[in-house]
Write a structure and sequence with these properties.
alpha+beta, nine-stranded mixed sheet, two-stranded antiparallel sheet, 11 strands
């Protein structure tokens, strides 16, 4: 009889114990992969968002840093204003290579003049922008024209319509940016000229006009010269430009980074406790099973089975249960995280980006290996002990 068939017979002959081991492997693999998916998804989302923003420093009005971060992170519309003259002051700071202004706007909520409700709108200056313009030149081959826009991955033209209507103004969606898992995915990007044209048209076509104060901007994106000290530039901005807060790129979304770190510690603690309890239970179950099968193993030894063969048979049983349980657990984890992604984002109030297929397959492979190794190691000691017993003594018991 082959090792595989013997292990299969043993599993079928003790369905309750096998079910418990199967369930332990399912929980360990599923919980492990869920933890990795959520934490890695949040970290990847923050990293991609910082790359998308492309700024070494973001300058916002004093006291508005938290609102701006929330808007960029979760896509919650916000409006903040500071004098446009701040732009030239910031651009003159030593080490600054480029300074580009932005306007933070929002569509109306449930208004007939808007086909997108409470959409976060970001207007940029094509002449100075260094984040959106390179993408436009690469994908469209030209700058955005009047009435044109690009959107995040989740921005779309409403069904049955050809364009997006905002404040009674028709906007053409020319393309979508790659997903980041953040509020940038549900943000509409347009030029200053289009934003001001919307404000002009909205006075006669919208329920409530779009207000853009004269000589006001919402934020300034700063790109430093190669080798320049961004921290020193941030300090210079604070001293030179009144009533603003410069946020350095490494410090951007700092509150959410701490939240992710705290979540990671909590989930790792739960995972560690679950793993230890599961391995202890698996070890006890295999100890009980090995003791109950002492006579059976003694007969096999008397018939010529070697100690190594007995050990391999017991470990094969553990590996088969681990593979089956972990495969089901991983499938459930992927389905749960994928289907309830939006609920996870709302509940944890942090971004989440589902990994690409190659990355997901790598994580799945790692989860299977961890579960199989853990269960096999838990079964190793009792399997080794019973494989070393004397056949004659075992058959008399």
């Amino acid at each position: 009889m082959s090792l595989f068939r013997l292990a299969t017979k043993n599993i079928e002959g003790s369905s309750f114990r096998s079910g418990v081991v199967f369930l332990c492997a399912l929980v360990v693999a599923g919980l492990s992969l869920s933890t990795v998916l959520v934490i890695r998804g949040a970290q990847d989302s923050l990293r991609l968002a910082l790359e998308r923003l492309g700024a070494d420093i973001i300058v916002v009005p004093e006291g508005e840093a938290s609102r701006v971060e929330t808007a960029l992170l979760m896509g919650k519309p916000t409006q903040t204003w500071m004098p446009q003259e701040n732009l030239s002051k910031i651009a003159s700071i030593s080490g600054v290579a480029a300074a580009s202004p932005q306007l933070f706007l929002a569509s109306l909520s449930n208004a007939s003049c808007c086909s997108a409700s409470e959409l976060f709108m970001v207007a940029f200056d094509p002449k100075t922008d260094f984040a959106i313009e390179p993408w436009l030149r690469q994908r469209l081959g030209h700058e955005l024209r009047l009435g044109e826009s690009v959107g995040g991955n989740l921005v779309f033209v409403p069904e049955g319509e050809e364009n997006i209507k905002l404040y009674g103004y028709i906007i053409s969606l020319k393309g979508n940016l790659e997903p980041t898992g953040m509020g940038l995915d549900q943000t509409l990007f347009l030029t200053f000229d289009t934003a001001r044209d919307i404000a002009r048209i909205s006075k006669t076509r919208a329920v409530k006009p779009l207000e853009i104060p004269d000589n006001k901007i919402s934020a300034v994106m700063v790109k430093m010269q190669p080798g320049a000290d961004a921290h020193k530039a941030a300090l210079d901005i604070m001293q030179t430009v009144p009533n603003v807060t410069p946020i350095e790129s490494p410090q951007l979304f700092q509150a959410y980074r701490k939240q992710i770190t705290g979540l990671l510690r909590g989930m790792m603690a739960v995972l560690g406790i679950t793993l230890v309890l599961s391995l202890v239970m698996i070890s006890l179950i295999f100890s009980m099973a090995a003791n109950e099968r002492r006579r059976e193993i003694g007969v096999l030894r008397a018939l010529g089975a070697t100690r190594v063969a007995i050990l391999q048979s017991l470990l094969s049983e553990a590996a088969m249960l681990a593979l089956g349980g972990s495969a089901v657990g991983i499938a459930l984890a992927v389905m749960t995280v994928g289907l309830f992604r939006n609920l996870i984002v709302r509940s944890l109030e942090m971004p989440f980006l589902f990994p690409s297929l190659p990355a997901l397959l790598t994580l799945i492979g790692g989860g299977l290996i961890v579960a199989m190794v853990s269960v096999t190691l838990a079964a190793l000691l009792p399997a080794y002990r019973v494989s070393r017993q004397d056949p004659a003594v075992a058959m008399r018991e």
